[in-house]
Design brief:
100 residues; alpha+beta
Protein backbone atom coordinates (compact mmCIF):
# COMPACT_ATOMS: atom_id res chain seq x y z
CA UNK A 1 0.00 0.00 0.00
CA UNK A 2 1.27 3.43 -0.93
CA UNK A 3 0.99 6.44 1.39
CA UNK A 4 1.64 9.91 -0.06
CA UNK A 5 1.91 12.95 2.20
CA UNK A 6 1.97 16.46 0.83
CA UNK A 7 2.10 19.84 2.57
CA UNK A 8 0.72 23.17 1.39
CA UNK A 9 2.28 26.21 3.04
CA UNK A 10 3.83 23.74 5.48
CA UNK A 11 6.97 21.63 5.52
CA UNK A 12 6.28 17.97 6.25
CA UNK A 13 8.71 17.13 9.04
CA UNK A 14 9.91 13.64 9.92
CA UNK A 15 7.61 13.66 12.98
CA UNK A 16 4.52 14.57 10.94
CA UNK A 17 5.40 12.01 8.25
CA UNK A 18 5.87 9.23 10.81
CA UNK A 19 2.65 10.15 12.64
CA UNK A 20 0.51 10.18 9.47
CA UNK A 21 1.98 6.88 8.24
CA UNK A 22 1.41 5.19 11.62
CA UNK A 23 -2.20 6.38 11.80
CA UNK A 24 -2.91 5.60 8.12
CA UNK A 25 -1.78 1.99 8.46
CA UNK A 26 -4.72 1.54 10.83
CA UNK A 27 -7.13 1.86 7.89
CA UNK A 28 -5.93 -1.41 6.33
CA UNK A 29 -7.16 -3.27 9.42
CA UNK A 30 -10.70 -2.13 8.64
CA UNK A 31 -10.62 -3.10 4.97
CA UNK A 32 -7.82 -5.00 3.24
CA UNK A 33 -8.54 -3.64 -0.25
CA UNK A 34 -7.10 -0.19 0.46
CA UNK A 35 -4.71 0.50 -2.42
CA UNK A 36 -3.31 3.94 -1.63
CA UNK A 37 -3.72 6.81 0.80
CA UNK A 38 -3.04 10.44 -0.07
CA UNK A 39 -2.79 12.98 2.72
CA UNK A 40 -2.70 16.72 2.06
CA UNK A 41 -1.98 18.99 5.01
CA UNK A 42 -2.47 22.72 4.49
CA UNK A 43 -1.57 25.47 6.94
CA UNK A 44 -4.35 28.05 7.13
CA UNK A 45 -4.29 31.33 9.10
CA UNK A 46 -5.93 29.92 12.26
CA UNK A 47 -5.94 26.17 11.71
CA UNK A 48 -4.66 23.16 9.83
CA UNK A 49 -6.70 21.59 7.05
CA UNK A 50 -6.15 17.86 6.68
CA UNK A 51 -7.52 15.89 3.73
CA UNK A 52 -7.28 12.15 3.31
CA UNK A 53 -8.07 10.49 -0.02
CA UNK A 54 -8.24 6.71 0.22
CA UNK A 55 -8.28 4.62 -2.95
CA UNK A 56 -10.17 1.36 -2.46
CA UNK A 57 -10.52 -1.42 -5.03
CA UNK A 58 -13.85 -1.44 -6.92
CA UNK A 59 -15.13 1.78 -5.35
CA UNK A 60 -14.78 5.52 -5.71
CA UNK A 61 -12.19 7.18 -3.48
CA UNK A 62 -13.16 7.95 0.10
CA UNK A 63 -12.40 11.60 0.88
CA UNK A 64 -12.36 13.19 4.32
CA UNK A 65 -11.59 16.80 5.25
CA UNK A 66 -11.00 18.12 8.73
CA UNK A 67 -9.89 21.45 10.19
CA UNK A 68 -8.49 22.01 13.67
CA UNK A 69 -6.12 24.39 15.43
CA UNK A 70 -4.03 21.37 16.50
CA UNK A 71 -2.44 19.49 13.60
CA UNK A 72 -2.28 16.12 15.36
CA UNK A 73 -5.91 16.38 16.51
CA UNK A 74 -6.95 17.15 12.93
CA UNK A 75 -5.07 14.07 11.69
CA UNK A 76 -6.63 11.85 14.39
CA UNK A 77 -10.17 13.06 13.75
CA UNK A 78 -9.80 12.77 9.97
CA UNK A 79 -8.50 9.19 10.31
CA UNK A 80 -11.42 8.36 12.61
CA UNK A 81 -13.91 9.63 10.02
CA UNK A 82 -12.10 7.73 7.27
CA UNK A 83 -12.15 4.53 9.33
CA UNK A 84 -15.89 4.93 9.89
CA UNK A 85 -16.52 5.38 6.14
CA UNK A 86 -14.43 2.33 5.27
CA UNK A 87 -16.10 0.21 7.98
CA UNK A 88 -19.54 1.16 6.68
CA UNK A 89 -18.46 0.27 3.13
CA UNK A 90 -17.18 -3.12 4.28
CA UNK A 91 -20.43 -3.74 6.17
CA UNK A 92 -22.47 -2.91 3.04
CA UNK A 93 -20.41 -5.33 0.95
CA UNK A 94 -20.78 -8.09 3.54
CA UNK A 95 -24.55 -7.58 3.82
CA UNK A 96 -24.94 -7.46 0.05
CA UNK A 97 -23.14 -10.79 -0.40
CA UNK A 98 -24.92 -12.52 2.49
CA UNK A 99 -28.46 -11.16 2.87
CA UNK A 100 -30.45 -12.41 5.85
Amino acid sequence: MQINIKGKHLEITEAIDTYVRKKSERLVRYFDQVQSIDCVIAKEPNAYHVEFIVDVAHHEDFIVNYRDADLYAAIDLAIDREARQISEHKKQIRNHKHPQ
